[in-house]
Amino acid sequence: MPGDEQFKQEVLRLAGHELLTCIQCGTCSASCPTARLMNPSIRRLIKLCLEGKKEEATHNETLWLCTSCLLCTSRCPRGIRPKAVVSALKDIAERAGLQGKDAAYEKFFLEQIKDYGRIAELALTAKFLLVFPQGAVQSMQMGLELLPRGKIDLKIEKIKGRDEVKKIIEELWKK
Amino acid sequence: MKLAYYPGCVSKSTGKEMDASTRAVSAALGIELVELPDWNCCGATHVSHELVATGLAARNMAQTNLPIMTACSICYSNLRAAAQRLEEPETLEKVNAVLDRKYSSAYSSAKIRHALDVILEALTEGDERIVVPLKELRVAPYYGCLLTRPQGVYSPQFPTILENLIKRLQAVPVDFRLKTFCCGGPIFMPQEKAADDIAFKILAEAKKAGAEVIVTVCPLCHLMLDAKQKVLEQKMGEKIGIPILYVTQLVGIALGLGPEELGLFMNSVSPMAMMERVYARLSE
């Protein structure tokens, strides 16, 4: 089956054309803190993009196991930014309406910035637990640590420049 | 020295002690901080769209002509990455089209500073303000990821600035193999197990290296190693019991600032036993 050329070009546009110079050396995978849980590996993910295999490249757990630590990006001998590839693929998947707990978390995060200009962790967590109730135990454990120490803010702070922030997100998102 | 201060969202919640100790130490060292008037979230590691992330950072940076200091490595990394991208005229044009107050290329990533670097610069060798030298205290320097990435002034793999600061406080930096390894924090909500495994690896490694305390420069690293430490111990069946201090808290202790000012009672793993050892060694 021929690859999806349009998809490949979109990844290149978002993550950089240097992707074409990938030599599949695997330095990215060897550097990744969550590599052992990834399938496909980050190295293979890049190959999938270059082959235009959209479905396999955008529907996998690998994207959501990336911690954004940038070690792959620091080490790539070709100057490729594998983390930017992950971001591009998340972006493409989210635009195509990808559902799931991980995509939901990113969506809620951005919605909060759009609505308040800042993150209110308690409200974010509450919203996330509605789509991923399995996270409740961890959240309770964290709450028990943080609440008595006064480290959970109950009120939501809103910035003055919310309209500007909203415009930044909505306008730049299209580009 | 006068700097613009970008506290970041966690300064209002899980990172209150980071904010408190940053302000206290800055005041003690004569670093004047002017909070950015209407700062917004930098997007942390959750805004995948690079241009949106750049725009969010640019709005913050356009609010001041002063160098900007933050104590959060994530904010620091995002502002620096954005400043780098904004050097491309095409990106600058797109971003400025949506900003009320325009970002100017007169700013550069060199003007984004981490509190760690500002503090080290303010403290001289044998500085008289260090009234509580941290003699013999074995400190694990934990850099995490984003202080040194994308690459700026520090090596992304073998940085030494934390060790330099630890030595300046007369403490002993321990050789810590995982010092630039990720804590797993950015994915801890949706990918709990993956994050727990790597956070615990770091704690176990620091313990093996004989650390009495781990210092962090990032609120997410702090959350994973401190607030989660008890739960991680239970899950993995191994006691760790190492206090995790923000670098600003460690400096504050050496400057003789009070525990209240430094937010030391907000830490999950109490640093009080460690403090007692510090004071005991002082009188030896």
Task: Report on the architecture of this protein.
- The complex is a heterodimer of chains A (175) and B (284).
- In chain A, helix 1 packs across helix 7, helix 8 packs antiparallel against helix 9 and helix 8 crosses helix 11.
- The longest helix of chain A is centred in the middle third of the chain and has 16 residues.
- The model of chain A has no long low-confidence stretch (mean pLDDT 95).
- With 175 residues, chain A is mainly α.
- Chain A contains 11 helices and no strands.
- Chain A has 2 domains: 91 residues, Orthogonal Bundle (Fumarate Reductase Iron-sulfur Protein, Chain B, domain 2); 73 residues, no CATH class.
- Chain B is α/β, with parallel strands linked by helices.
- Chain B folds into 2 domains: 115 residues, Glutathione S-transferase Yfyf (Class Pi), Chain A, domain 2 (Up-down Bundle), CATH 1.20.1050; 158 residues, Rossmann fold.
- Chain B contains 11 helices and 8 strands.
- Chain B has a 4-stranded parallel beta sheet, sandwiched between helices. A 4-stranded parallel beta sheet of chain B has the order 6-5-7-8, with helices on both faces.
- The model of chain B has no long low-confidence stretch (mean pLDDT 95).
- The chains are: A mainly alpha (175), B alpha/beta (284).
- Chains A and B meet through helix 6, helix 7, helix 8, helix 9 and helix 10 of A and helix 2 and helix 7 of B.
Estimate the mean pLDDT confidence of chain A. 95
Main beta sheet of chain A, described? none
Distance N to C terminus of chain A? 30 Å
**Count of helix runs of chain B:** 11
Head-to-tail CA distance between termini of chain B: 36 Å
Q: How much strand of chain B?
A: 5-15%
Q: How many structural domains are formed by the residues of chain B?
A: 2
